[in-house]
Amino acid sequence: LEEQLRQSQKMEAVGTLAGGIAHDFNNILTVIAGYASLIQINTEESETAAMAGEIMISVERAAEMTRSLLAFSRKQEVHLETVDLNQVVAELHKSLSRLISEEIELVVRVCGEELCCLADRGQLEQVLINLAVNARDAMPGGGVLDISTGVAEPEGEDLPAGRCAVITVSDNGTGMDKEVQERVFEPFFTTKEVGKGTGLGLSSSYGIIKKHNGAIRMQSAPGAGTSFSIYLPLSGERPCRERGDAEGRCGAGS
Ligand code: ADP
Fold it and tell me: Residues in domain Histidine kinase (predicted)?
């Protein structure tokens, strides 16, 4: 428990710092991209134009990183709406199957109950995609990527109280040793080769779930696989379909 608290305080501090830097950094990147584009337009030399193009590609990569950092540091605004997590997961099925290779079997199982939560749909999808990409990368020789939903009443200091929706993303890939497990949520921590990983997927996912008053938990064993569980507070005590008010109904407005 103490370890979790320490971890969460550390993430808080890193988040504040990272958010401030990411914000200023974004402004600088806009200036760099602007000048690179001007050079490209104004130069007569194709070599110079190509180099300016390279600058713009790098700037775009850096911008992608700052976007992830901002998501992690909660500077990004959340647009909350009532969403049914089962629907989110089911609709993501197609994009996820495009993301993973043919050697990986994608199993999606949603529970029978509606899982209505107040959430930013786009950001939740981003979290699930991050987890799925990591699972894919952990199974280079193929395997099973299992995404399932359910209801739980988790107990623990930094877990949401009461009935929660749970989304579990599991793989039977490489797994992680203790050292890696301790660092996965740190921004810029990656074991992937340069260009393949930014080390921001899990830290931004952590930030997004935290913003939703939820929690993210990980279990992993080297050689056996990894499982991430996302806990999100359910928005109503009864399934929202029964409430009958248009505003509270799942998927309203979409
Ligand atoms: P990135 O994917 O860019 O490396 P992440 O923050 O998403 O950044 O992940 C950090 C690290 O955590 C990865 O480089 C990898 O070592 C480890 N990791 C994350 N998910 C898994 C998984 N499902 N199986 C094994 N290792 C994982």
Answer: 20-236
